[in-house]
Amino acid sequence: MKRILPVLLLLFVLQISAQTKRTFTYAVKGKDTLKLDVYTPEILRPNDSLPVLLWMHGGGFAGGTRDNAAEQKLCEYVANRGYIGISISYRLLRKNQPTGFGCDCDNQEKINTFKQAVIDYFDAAKYIVKNAKSLQIDTSKLIAGGSSAGAEAILNAVFMRSYFIDDLKQYNDINFAGVLSLAGALVNVDYITKSNALPSVLFHGTDDNLVPFATAPHHYCDPSKAGYLILDGSATIAEKLSELEVAYYFHKVKGGRHELSSIQFNEFDNIFDFFAKTVLNSEVIQTKIIKQKKP
């Protein structure tokens, strides 16, 4: 009996560790209870410490959910690659707003929306770093990922924390190791420097009508509109990373529109092979893929 009990205990621990999905509340802000879903590999040993993809869904800061079918499929794929996939909810500040998030939305309101999304993202990152041991994550291998609005938020969080965060000290323990952006942009590419540049995967269509492919107004608003705000998109970010001699994987589609914000499941093997080489093994690889949109 003495020999059987330790074996049963070990099997019990392994069974708990192998759970596919767990949900936690990382913050409560007003009426919003913000949660994150943690997806782990099927086999997770007690002493494992794995890299993480911290994912932020799209939806124009007005819609989308952390646990829709695409986000779940993404995190399950990530877990099968030996990572931990985490998908978060955040405050949808433009939901039910009459001006939406387009050209009628004041540009300062857009900046504030970015700011609050950045703060939510950092609070989620702070939660998982604080609970790194129980979640079995390697905090030195934290990849920031997002699509559309989520990509805008994570790019601004990773590269412009000093601009958007008033109290930086509370996030001192958060250091990102890589970026996965699907049709994203940030406020000012000049904030990317040699000290904060990271291996980045960027997907974007050249004719994206919402988030600029290079440097252009958000939603291509006319200068006379309240929502006129210049953003730097994937092409500008890739050019900056190239100048800094930092690894990147830039996938552009000629004629592609905002559909490049959809999760690129057919490209995942290439994406995570890139992360394996650059984030996990510190290689510097610069890759540009150019495709033509299919008729």
Automatic annotation (TrEMBL):
Pfam families recorded: BD-FAE
Single Gene Ontology MF annotation: hydrolase activity
UniProt keyword annotations, A-Z: Hydrolase, Signal
Keyword Transmembrane tagged: no
Signal peptide range in chain numbering: 1-18
Full protein name: Alpha/beta hydrolase
Domain BD-FAE-like: 36-161
Domain of life from the UniProt record: Bacteria
Organism per entry: Geojedonia litorea
